[in-house]
Amino acid sequence: MFETIWWRCHVRATDRRGAERVARRLGTQLDGAVQIESYERYWKFPGLAEMRLVSPLRCSTPETALLTTLQYAWRTATPWSLGTPGPGNEFEGVAASNAGSRFAVPGVEWMEFHVTERA
């Protein structure tokens, strides 16, 4: 069963409160179901914060999980670069503003999703 989408993103925010605002806007794009798992300053670029987010998926097959995840991902940014499927029905994708991706939520610079089947 595919229960969760793990998101990681880099956002332009001066403090945690600003990053939380960006996360709420992302949640709006993802039907309001996003929780912040972690927040920290991005060590490479002090103007960016790195956040890890989770959102529910609840799909039973890899095909449905991938399609549903991509539908959510396309609400937040286009285009996405997809990785090859990994062992255990894992898949991931990346969108980056410096690679031509456009984000629906201002402040997001880079975003990644990761989905895997729960054993």
Explain how this protein is built.
The protein has 119 residues and is α+β, with helices and mostly antiparallel strands. The chain is 24% helix and 42% strand. It contains two helices and eight strands, in the order βαββαβββββ. The strands form two sheets. The chain has a six-stranded antiparallel sheet. Strands 4-7 form a two-stranded antiparallel sheet. 24% of the residues are buried.
Entry summary:
The chain has two helices and eight strands, in the order E-H-E-E-H-E-E-E-E-E. The chain is of the alpha+beta class and 119 residues long.
Protein topology:
Layout: E1 2-12, H1 16-29, E2 35-41, E3 48-59, H2 62-76, E4 77-78, E5 81-82, E6 91-96, E7 102-103, E8 108-115
Antiparallel strand pairs: 1-3, 1-8, 2-3, 4-7, 5-6, 6-8
**Oligomer kind:** single chain
Fraction of helical residues: 10-25%
Contiguous uncertain segments of 5+ residues? none
Compute the number of helices: 2
Please state the CA-atom Rg, rounded to the nearest Å.
14 Å
| Beginning-to-end CA distance, first to last residue | 8 Å
Largest sheet: 6 strands, antiparallel
The run of helices and strands is EHEEHEEEEE
Q: Per DSSP, what share of the residues sits in E-state strands of 2 or more residues?
A: 35-45%
Mean pLDDT: 92
Identify the notable features of this structure and list them briefly.
119 residues; alpha+beta; six-stranded antiparallel sheet; 2 helices; 8 strands; 24% helix; globular
